[in-house]
């Protein structure tokens, strides 16, 4: 039961933070203009990484442990959705992150604006994946217990 609660809690916190970033923080930063948005994005990204990466790993490992012990497919699916965030971030989002962090990027350019918009769309995928995992875990807990 502890691993189920850890997986669900980690997925819920991750999903909540990701949804907040997608629905509130990123649109607000974009409304301030490109230069300020990129300037704010950099420290926000660094701080979020230290919160979200451990949540994705702990949540997915806990869910996969629950699946391994009980062979409940819901925990496997949710755990894999949460785990998928890690390679998605490293392979798909990381090039955009690196470009946004580049010292050569003109913070007032259309390229910077385009990168920010792209980052917002890519981050929304993380919000959906984590939200789906969280809902699966919640439903499974509700049905099982």
Properties at a glance:
0% strand; mainly alpha
Strand percentage lies at under 5%
Give the overall pLDDT as a whole number: 95
Radius of gyration: 17 Å
- Counting structural domains, the number is 1
Oligomer: single chain
- Report the end-to-end length measured between terminal Cα atoms: 10 Å
Shape designation: elongated
What is the N-to-C order of secondary-structure elements (H for helix, E for strand)?
A: HHHH
Structural class call reads: mainly alpha
Tell me what the structure shows.
This protein has 145 residues and is mostly helical. It has one domain (2-144). The chain has four helices and no strands. It has helices spanning 2-30, 34-70, 73-101, 110-144. The longest helix is centred in the middle third of the chain and has 37 residues, at 34-70. The model has no long low-confidence stretch (mean pLDDT 95).
Write a compact overview of the structure shown:
This protein is an all-alpha fold.
Q: Layout of SSEs?
A:
Layout (H helix, E strand, L loop, with lengths): L1 H29 L3 H37 L2 H29 L8 H35 L1
């Amino acid at each position: 039961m502890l691993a189920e609660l850890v997986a669900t809690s980690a997925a819920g916190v991750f999903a909540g933070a990701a949804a907040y970033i997608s629905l509130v923080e990123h649109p607000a930063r974009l409304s301030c203009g490109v230069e300020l948005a990129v300037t704010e994005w950099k420290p926000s990204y660094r701080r979020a990484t230290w919160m979200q990466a451990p949540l994705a790993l702990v949540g997915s490992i806990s869910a996969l442990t629950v699946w391994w012990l009980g062979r409940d497919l819901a925990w496997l699916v949710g755990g894999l959705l949460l785990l998928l965030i890690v390679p998605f971030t490293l392979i798909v989002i990381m090039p955009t992150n690196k470009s946004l962090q580049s010292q050569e990027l003109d913070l007032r350019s259309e390229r910077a604006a385009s990168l920010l918009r792209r980052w917002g769309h890519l981050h929304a995928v993380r919000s959906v994946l984590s939200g789906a995992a969280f809902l699966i875990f919640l439903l499974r807990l509700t049905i099982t217990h």
